[in-house]
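Can anyone check this?
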Amino acid sequence: LGDSSALGIAYSLAIAETVLAPVTPSNTARGGGIIHPIMRSIADSFGSKADDGTSGKIGRYLALVNYNTNPITSAMFITATAPNPLIVTLIVQEAGKGAELSWSMWAVAAFLPALISLITMPLVIYFLYKPEITATPDAPEFARERIRELGPVSLPEKITLGVFILLLALWAGVPGWLFGSQYNVNPTTAAFIGLAALLCSGVLSWDDVLKNKGAWDTVVWFAALVMMASFLGKLGLIKWVSLTVGGGIDHLGIGWTGGMLLLVLFYVYSHYFFASTTAHITAMFAAFYAAGLALGAPPMLLGLTLAFSSSLMMSLTHYGTGTAPIIFGSGYTTLGEWWKTGLVMSIVNLVIWIIAGSLWWKLLGYW
């Protein structure tokens, strides 16, 4: 709360998530589990709550920034979200070892367009849904006063902090770094370890868990959507659509530039039909990448564009990735506000990453 504007707070949230991105391979854990509680605390401190009609003060704006930072940071590093390593593998399988992306190559390629997106995104959302509270000149003193009111850190708070650090270490893959990849812990397993620790220590009771209606709602309907998307892939529908689209574009005779652009647009906006980026990438990435190569698109240009688009498309819906139902479920925005912002940000991000990105990658000699 050291900045005196809503924009300053938004940029602070974006910076915090960017710092965590390289070492948090779960975008859901990062955006929904780490940054979102901080965002809610900030909104609450300004009297902007989701359930009393005051979300327009600043909560709605910060919630939309909180979520739309997540797709950008997920695109920045191979280790920022689970499907990114899969994308690296799929690119190599189709284009050969010459198109292999290292961690540093990916990060350098993403740096400039991501920086532009992170600067632009809070401004775009500010224009769409300007918060009622725009200036917060007393924020530093207000924050210090609230900290004094909270008093010393209690034992349950210390336990919670310890569990939080443990979860960060597990999500970041620290056991794998220290003892070998066989000791890596699945992000879902890590979350259950954290929950068990809080229950066993008495910080949480089972009644506390049962009262969290938003979490149970997320588990039930999000799991069903993921299952349906997976079966669409298993039954061959998605692959058939991908190959049909690729063949149709080839017959248009518009060259590899126009063909690649159409492939990317179809790939991104088909995410309206998916509740999981991993399911979407598994079903469509290889087919669309192969179709683009057949059109004559440069392998690295096409690969990077599709790779980064695989994260940017998360912005579209309230079910597009695991972070979405967590933040949307907190109730700060309506469905219409969420979808409108997602569509606008998808267009803005694609323009930035395709134009600035392709020029940047050309300068780097990637294609």
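Reply from J.R.: I decoded it. The chain has a mean pLDDT of 85.
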